[in-house]
Structures are given as structure tokens and as C-alpha cells.
Write a structure and sequence with these properties.
Blueprint (H helix, E strand, L loop, with lengths): L1 E6 L3 H11 L5 E7 L2 H11 L3 E4 L8 H11 L4 E6 L5 H6 L4 E4 L4 H12 L22 E6 L2 E6 L3 E7 L2 E6 L2 E5 L3 H7 L5 E5 L2 E4 L5 E4 L5 E6 L5 E6 L5
Parallel strand pairs: 1-2, 1-3, 3-4, 4-5
Antiparallel strand pairs: 6-7, 8-9, 8-12, 9-10, 11-12, 13-14, 14-15
Helix pairs in contact: 2-3
Length: about 240
């Protein structure tokens, strides 16, 4: 079970989130709070796995409370749930696991829960042997160049883009081709630093040099490209 608490100063918002989380049988809501003063003792006692945290609250803001949470329960994953997109960069600086915009969409929440499940594998049923929680991370990728099939280290990849069956794989040693689809690679790159930030791009998050705020709460990532030139890649709003 993923032990969870909800912190929001508006009761309807807490009720709405609890309703959205009801279908997830592995999410166990152990408590809720409407301000930092009641939240801190609760977090200190429970040490929850997951915390849904509003930003604009009476007293301490969610951003200020997040700093305290890191001290009293450093292993808790924080997901900000807010009607404001102005705090996304600050949230990332605080190592937030996700940033949800209110009203929370069911599809977007599903993405978040699926991501959190990777950190909290299900316990085996009685009589079942425990399975490994995660598949062995992919370390090599087969690509093509000049008629040759090569195996490259995925950590050398900057980004992947293109149309299905005709992908460009940009790396520290040049550009290669792949006949896979982005969806196929996205599934294979689970548990690695390669992440699909846009329908047309998979990016190595470890290669990102800068996050550029853009229009209406969207962002661009700046990272190395071919010939040591910096490349700007868009982040879709759903993946921010």
C-alpha cells in the first residue's frame, strides 16, 4: 500500500481528491490536514510515502511546508496540487515528484499514480514468492548508421525525435537512426533517465542544462545537440 496524506486548506478540494483516488486500491489515505501547523505533527508521526500538497494555504505556504517535510520525513514523495502554475520551477527545486494543476484531470492523475507505483511495488500475496520490484534498467540501445548496427550506451543519448520508424538518436558521438517508435522506446526506458517530455521527443534528463519558462505554464529544455550546439526542446503541458 502507498501510505498517503492530503494537505489542502479547502475541504471541498480534499474531498474531490479523495474521490479521485478511491479507484486506486493501493492508495491508503491515512490522514488529512488544512494547514502546516496540523500537517507537520501528522507527517512526523506517520512518515507517509506520498503527500498531496496544496501551495496557497493559510499560514505557511505549501512551498514553505515542503522544506519542513524534507527535514521531518525525507523519504516522503511530494506531489503539489494547485490552481497556480507560477510555482512549478520552485517545486522542481524542492524535488517534487509531480505538479498537478487544479481541477485535477483523471488522466493526468493516472499518470502520476503509475509513476509513483514504480517507487512502491506491491507486496506479494500470501504464498507467492517476492518478485524483483523493477526490471533491470536498459543500458544499451541498438541503432544504425551507414548500414551498420551499433550498440550505444543510453547515457550517451541527449534526445530522440522523429516519426515512427524513422527516429533520430542524438548522442555525444553524433546522430544515429532507429526504426523503433517513440512509444516502444518510452516503455523500454522505464527506470532510466530517458523520459518522454513531448509526443515528439524523448530526452535524457541528466543532459538538461537549463529549463526555460515559456507561454501559459509551458517550458522548454535546453541541452546539448549535434556538433556541441545547444538545442531547445518543448515540454508538453501534461508532462511539465
Amino acid at each position: 500500500m502507498i501510505r498517503t496524506i492530503i494537505i489542502d486548506d479547502e475541504a471541498p478540494a480534499r474531498d474531490e481528491l479523495k474521490f479521485l483516488l478511491e479507484p486506486y486500491t493501493d492508495i491508503e489515505i491515512l490522514g488529512e490536514a488544512d494547514n502546516a501547523a496540523t500537517a507537520v505533527p501528522l507527517i512526523t508521526k506517520i512518515k507517509p510515502d506520498l503527500i498531496f500538497l496544496d501551495i496557497q494555504m493559510r499560514g505557511l505556504s505549501g512551498i514553505e511546508l515542503a522544506s519542513i517535510i524534507h527535514e521531518v520525513s525525507p523519504n516522503s514523495h511530494i506531489i503539489f496540487a494547485t490552481a497556480y502554475n507560477d510555482y512549478a520551477l520552485k517545486a522542481f527545486e524542492l524535488n517534487a515528484s509531480d505538479y498537478l494543476m487544479k481541477p485535477i484531470e483523471e488522466e493526468r492523475l493516472e499518470q502520476t499514480i503509475q509513476r509513483m507505483r514504480k517507487y512502491f511495488p506491491s507486496e506479494p500475496k500470501e504464498g507467492e514468492a517476492r518478485k524483483e520490484c523493477c526490471a533491470t534498467p536498459l543500458s544499451k540501445l541498438a541503432v544504425e548508421r551507414d548500414g551498420h548496427i551499433l550498440l550505444i550506451d543510453i547515457h550517451s543519448i541527449y534526445y530522440i525525435t522523429g516519426e515512427s520508424g524513422h527516429l533520430e538518436v542524438a548522442t555525444s558521438s553524433g546522430i544515429y537512426e532507429s526504426h523503433k517508435t517513440l512509444s516502444e522506446l518510452q516503455n523500454r526506458f522505464n527506470n532510466t533517465s530517458l523520459y518522454r517530455v513531448h509526443r515528439s521527443y524523448i530526452v535524457n534528463l541528466e543532459a538538461v542544462k537549463e529549463i526555460l519558462p515559456w507561454f501559459k505554464g509551458t517550458y522548454w529544455l535546453r541541452l546539448p545537440g549535434p556538433c556541441s550546439k545547444l538545442v531547445d526542446i518543448p515540454v508538453s503541458k501534461a508532462q511539465v
